[in-house]
Amino acid sequence: MVSIGPSFGKTMVVPKELDGANLTQGTARVAVRPGLCTRYVVWALQSQTSVDFWESSIGGATFRALNLGPLAETPIPLPARDEQRAIADYLDRETARIDTLMDEQQRLIAMLRERRAAVISTALTPTDSWLRRRIKHIGETSLGKMLDAGRAVRPGDELRPYVRAADVRADGSVNLVDLNQMPFSEAEMEAFDLRSGDVLLIEGGATVGRPGFMFESAPGVAFQKTVNRLRVGHQADARFVYWSMLRLYELAYYANHYGSVSFVHLTGEKLREIELSLPSVDEQRVIAAHLDEQTAKIDALIAETERFIELARERRSALITAAVTGELDVREVA
């Protein structure tokens, strides 16, 4: 069975318990001809050669899906049946080893992320000396400009780049490259500017409340209404506030707090009423610096592990392609 929808190319042998079941939309049945090794055909369809053939049939189509025609025309090398079995046995064994290794690395990443969350939680656990303050008492919030789709450009307006929710990244950085643009007046650019120390929070959707941090000012760049800007005053350290908002996000604060709403919006009113626990500003700076240092170390380990997994995936793909195309003689490496 082969997936032929947008995520085309996934293959599997139908297990006996599903014999006779109906196919869902987006899948195709490949009936292997008698005399061929089914497992070998499955591996051949996973080779980069097959993927490249399918990609060439799709070209620049807007809706990426694999048609039955190109699937049926997919060229597959067909060595003798005994060699097909040998290749399938080899790939079963070697890819299982790679898959086990990747699973171990994925578990390591999960442990590192748990460790990261624990470091943040421990550092932000308040003591009796910490004070509770609503965000409206430590800074100013602003929702970005509404999209002006279809509206005539006013005299004096200029196309300007703007940050939207998609530009607030999971790692807390904010993308400032290749941004979308829309018309802004000079007054709007002043109202929706982005300065060093601003905390940006996604306004709605699955990642509502996820924060990003502006390490530097971005002259000439504004922000759109899918993003809230929190500009902290002298009563708090902006980086400490970022970490506090990240902790709320990772604790699913918004889903739990507004759980009865199907699509949660972090409105300015809601944001301003959120309470944070704050030590003295000096202690905030020390804690923020500690979290920057410790999470950077953990993030480096996560990135290194992710690179290892990516290399293992590439190795797996190359191994499959080499085996089914005959570049690798499995009898010599068995």
From TrEMBL:
PANTHER family: TYPE I RESTRICTION ENZYME HINDI SPECIFICITY SUBUNIT, TYPE-1 RESTRICTION ENZYME ECOKI SPECIFICITY PROTEIN
SUPFAM superfamilies, per the entry: DNA methylase specificity domain
Keyword Glycoprotein: no
A GO molecular-function descriptor: DNA binding
Keyword annotations from UniProtKB, A to Z: DNA-binding, Restriction system
One Pfam entry name: Methylase_S
Protein name per Swiss-Prot or TrEMBL: Type I restriction enzyme S subunit
Family membership: Belongs to the type-I restriction system S methylase family.
Lineage, highest ranks first: Bacteria, Bacillati, Actinomycetota, Actinomycetes, Geodermatophilales
Keyword Repeat annotated: no
Gene Ontology annotations of biological process type: DNA restriction-modification system
Organism: Geodermatophilus normandii
Residues annotated as domain Type I restriction modification DNA specificity: 53-100, 130-298
